[in-house]
Protein 1
Amino acid sequence: VDALRSCRGQVVLVDCWMDTCIPCKKGFPRVVAMHQKYAAAGLQLMTLCLSDASDLATQQRVRGFLTQQR
């Protein structure tokens, strides 16, 4: 919520996804590319992973995926 407040007045794309959702992960590079293309014009991107954050293995997979996607 605080992160969204800091973007008040800007266009914000909130991408919700799960570690187990293949279509979500396939589309992720397009979301990143959109951000790179329009960031200078003010587009903000927030990604929200809805996977179980209490599971250590899931945390590692999510971090690895995000690192791979840059």
Protein 2
Amino acid sequence: MAIFRGGVHPDGCKQLTRGAPIGRLPAPPAVWLPLSQHIGAPALPVVAAGDRVLRGRLVAKKAEGLSANVYAPIAGTVKGVVRHITAGGKKQDHILIEGDGSDESVSLAPLASLTPEAVLARIEEAGIVGMGGAGFPTAAKLNVRGRVDTLVVNAAECEPYITCDERIMLEYTGELLQGVRLCMLACGAERAVIGIEKNKPEAIAHLARQCGEGISVKPLRTRYPQGAEKQLICGCCGRTVPEGGLPADAGVVVVNVHTALAVQRAAVQNIPCYERVMTVSGGACARPGNFWVPNGTPLHAVADFCGGREDCARIVSGGPMMGEAVFSLKVCTSKTMSSLLFLEEGECRPRTASACIGCGRCVQACPMGLMPVFIDAAVLAKDYAAAKRFGAAQCIACGCCSYVCPAERYLTQSVRLGRKIVKERKL
């Protein structure tokens, strides 16, 4: 088995929700749907204030180029396009829908046939994006026929606390595997490999019994960030993605577990992407679990239902290694928000940055083989050309360097800033 270099072993903390079957969060009184729930251009509204919409109705269509459709997750009345805060702290355009308490819905038209072209078109129509967190429009990712022979399914779920993908594997096994085959059909892959960390033995055994011809399960060592795209491809296929290249350059395309399930729901059940399974967890959450949550649900509705305390030490959207600290529960869920964590003091490590002691631990931990300490120094000196030479553009923002730093330096944030400036300035 190919093994990537570096990485860390954070406490998994998955016992809080690992055994919790997927429930359903009640529909909130209103939803704020971000027009930008994906990489690329924001979607364009196709509804106006006063319009009544049903669950499953298209409310914003994809823009030209890279973009994705947006659908109503509840039935109700459109109040308009409003500026609303996001997890990143900025205000962006959202469609505000006030629910009417009904459960009326519409579906996509059934597909006449499951050809590669029809499946790709349905994935695009349904507004499916990478639901592991990246948000790349899935139809564009899978449009690589003739370039790949292997589909890798990211089932590693290496971030602490998060268990929504594991529950999907156990509870929606048939639908998931059907979604995997549809993704294989769409991209032209001859085989699929489902990469799962060994700390999920039940899911490994469960899928291995049912995967069938052409699909295999690959148990992977438990080491963060096993689920990062390049590390996952290395572990599942023993292939290396060239620097600056894409997985397709190594003959591979990668999709997340939840993304494959969304493909099945769209192509077979005719359900567009307007809700997702989220893990709600942490020591300051009275009723942790995994739940289907409508997109655009205010986080305070999630907190109220699960008993999450707003006065806890930290609230995090996503995992604790790569997620974002949430400053307001007015922020709303999206297609890419996999979890919401309410953390106690003992679950958060206080940071007081001090001078680098030259220990080299960040270099040893970096799974991309970079030297975060040198990139950090270049960024602080505003020498972005040097940051590029040290590989800032190759950083995957996994957080390993900050995790191991005994000086508590903000290495991940510094390298991420360097990567952003290098990209913006096209250095």
Protein 3
Amino acid sequence: GMVGIAFAFLFAILMGTASVFSRRGLENGSFYAMLVISLAIGSPIFLSITAVTTGFANTPLYGVLYAAAGAVVGSVLGRSLYFLGINYLGPGKSLSITATSPLYAAGLAWIVLDETITALVVVGTLVIVVGIVVLSKDIRTETEQSNHSMVVALYPLIGAMFAAVAVTLRKIALTTGIAPIEAATVNMVVGFLAVSPTLATRWRAELVDIDRSALRNFVIASTIMAVAFAFYFFGLRLTNASVFFPLVQTQPLFAVVLSTLFLGRLEVISRWTVAGSAIIVGGATLVVVG
């Protein structure tokens, strides 16, 4: 109960914090480097935890396969779009748009897992739409300042869809009997292996020539994210998903507060961002509770 709830909030606070370091690093470093470093740091951390806990004894193959599929969709494609969103829109607005993922997860659960759509899910969906409309005022200001089109808002939006598919795949993986920490490890390692070929060829120069301060920020962000994901999988094991997911969706609120405190000129935060992210978090909560 309470431990799982504490883990959910810790995850949200840590991810909000990591997004600020990511944004700082992305000022002088490429998002490719951020993606590779985040998976490279997460892999050994999770491998060592699994080695001393379950040691991959009695791990079902289907569990590994579903977790691996979740890794490609969530940790490679979803995470790439997540970093691009932070880069172009800043953490507060990007994470607010990413918080719409329960909406797609509910739709997928309805189609794939035969779960029912309730009135609360419908109301929550409408609230999320209102939140995005409110948020779009600051998104327009941000994109005009940096000479980008509003199309960059699609990065976190499509990233949220990939995240929902990944959650569905991970849910299926966990029903096979794979331990949460094993699923997390497969997720990190497969994600890293998937980006390795590109890392060895096209992105090598980006990593070799990386700016020192960018590297430092990326390493800090990646370490915080790895610790956050450990809390995520353990929290999910200790708490009902219906309680856990709304708490996890509070990330944008922490990101907005931390961006205001530490990013200053790097992100436009007005009352529109604050109101929009709060409305989206409320809508996401209704979707998950529903």
